[in-house]
Design goal:
The protein is an alpha+beta fold. 45% of the residues lie in helices and 13% in strands. The chain has 2 domains: 60 residues, Arc Repressor Mutant, subunit A; 80 residues, Glutaredoxin (3-Layer(aba) Sandwich). A hairpin with a 5-residue loop joins strand 2 and strand 3. The longest helix has 12 residues. The protein is elongated and about 50 Å long. The two termini are 31 Å apart.
């Protein structure tokens, strides 16, 4: 099965092209559009985007692998991104990540058996002033504690 934009997303893509001076300049928002439609950016999706923008698949893949916001494989309904850089590390993110592994059996780059959760360790969420931080899908949860995580996981588990 080959990937193609839905008619609605095809219109969004065409509108995107009018906002940029070159097709290449529209790469990031086009990838975002494709990911939102497909859930992740498989090689097939990346090749489709490359053909739309007259780029090499290798160029598109390089961009996809550089940015942590792009997912190359399916993630859980709730994708948890934990910041592991200095500010969050100094504020206890390592203990929180260990808690997620031990209590919830979540591992970096893996999806839970029920498909509800996936966890990813990322370099920076740019939330140093409210560390430790994580993102649930695209929403930030800051000043994390074990208790705050347990409360959030309880809510997400029934969602």
């Amino acid at each position: 099965m080959s990937f193609a934009f839905t008619p609605e997303n095809q219109k969004k893509f065409e509108a995107l092209l009018t906002k940029y001076p070159t097709k290449m300049a529209a790469l990031l928002p086009t990838l975002w559009l494709a990911q939102n439609q497909n859930g992740h950016l498989s090689l097939e999706v990346q090749e489709h985007v490359a053909s739309l923008l007259d780029l090499s698949p290798v160029h598109v893949h390089g961009v996809v692998t550089f940015y942590t916001m792009y997912k190359q494989k399916p993630s859980g309904k709730f994708h948890l991104q934990f910041c592991k850089t200095l500010s969050c590390g100094l504020c206890g993110s390592e203990d929180l990540i260990r808690h997620m592994k031990e209590k919830y059996k979540l591992e970096h780059g893996k999806v839970s058996e029920d498909g509800k959760f996936s966890m990813e360790l990322v370099e920076c969420l740019a939330s140093c002033g409210t560390a430790p931080a994580m993102a649930v899908n695209e929403k930030y949860v800051e000043q994390l504690t074990v208790e705050k995580i347990d409360e959030l996981m309880k809510k997400l588990s029934v969602a």
